[in-house]
TrEMBL record, chain A:
InterPro entries for the chain: Hydgase_Ni_incorp_HypA/HybF_CS, HypA/HybF
Family: Belongs to the HypA/HybF family.
Protein name (record): Hydrogenase maturation factor HypA
Entry keywords, A to Z: Metal-binding, Nickel, Zinc
HAMAP family, alphabetized: HypA_HybF
Matching PANTHER family: HYDROGENASE MATURATION FACTOR HYPA
Automatic annotation (TrEMBL), chain B:
Presence of keyword Metal-binding: yes
Protein keywords: GTP-binding, Hydrolase, Metal-binding, Nickel, Nucleotide-binding, Zinc
UniProt-recorded name of the protein: Hydrogenase accessory protein HypB, Ni(2+)-binding GTPase, (NiFe)-hydrogenase/urease maturation factor
Name of the coding gene: hypB
Cited Gene3D superfamilies: P-loop containing nucleotide triphosphate hydrolases
Chain ranges of the CobW/HypB/UreG nucleotide-binding domain: 33-191
Family membership: Belongs to the SIMIBI class G3E GTPase family. HypB/HupM subfamily.
Amino acid sequence: MHEMGVAQQMVNIAIASIPSDIVNPKVEKLNLRIGNLAAVVEDSLKFCFEIITKDTSLEGAKLVIEKVPVVVKCKACAHQWEVDGPVFTCPSCRDGAVEILSGRELEISSLELAD
Amino acid sequence: MEITIQKKVLEVNETMADKNRNYFREKGVFVLNMMSSPGSGKTETLCKTLKRIMPETRTGVIVGDICTRNDADRLEATGAAVVQINTDQFGGDCHLAAHLIDKAAREMTLDSLDLLIVENIGNLVCPAEFDIGENVKVVVLSVTEGEDKPLKYPLMFQVADAAILNKIDLLPYLDVDADLAVNNMKTVHPMMPVFKLSAKTEEGFDQWIEWLNGQIQAWKK
């Protein structure tokens, strides 16, 4: 629901990371890592990104999204597993609070500029 | 040419949330972030909570809504200090971000408060994603929303420190299994305390108030 705000932040971060000595930079690709638990809808993000990058150095850039699986660790027995549904009960000891090791990412890894 | 960035997209919010956390600690105020879907009874739960904990616990409320200050008026009637945030007149945002909390908190006299409650915008998705610098997050689910909401919105129930199952006074009239709703919350968050209560009749309120006071006392130490 807040994909436009997320897209705006992405553009701010991307533009700030381009060295100022590059004249008329053109970004071809923006590489992202998005966890499966992150409250972001991929199609909606792409749509907002396309609109918000108009007339910027990111116009027409491709969003490449690497999805990050949800991996958790049981605080009681230290068992680690990948969660593929809304079940966070430890399959090993059936108890314990969990620590989320991955799956909440919303990160920009890198961008690729045209030569 | 590839440029490595490795940055969190919500970094600006996280930095602001940390700033809020430091500010609240400096002022000696415990902060509770209350979240739920629209119509779950957050405001009524808060009104009844305020009635029980004030004036011993000096409390202020920041209330977020897209439109209107109806909730602020209801909460102000309890005697609490209230600041209303409207994210936009029409449409608006789907959550309260850390910078909005900073702005609202600075309109309050935090030195004279022990507890600051943030009533977030009714939404089970986005508020779960945005840290505002709170000490605890509490999610409210009402029995009329159905038992399976925790499974449909797992992030919200996973990040919450406690949950309230509200409107239990309606159970005799509904085909809803309250125990199943609690089990679903525990599936998503096994160790989470869950309080079954009715904001209308105040059944089950004692345990909730006891937990809240315990959290504030533990933090003060």
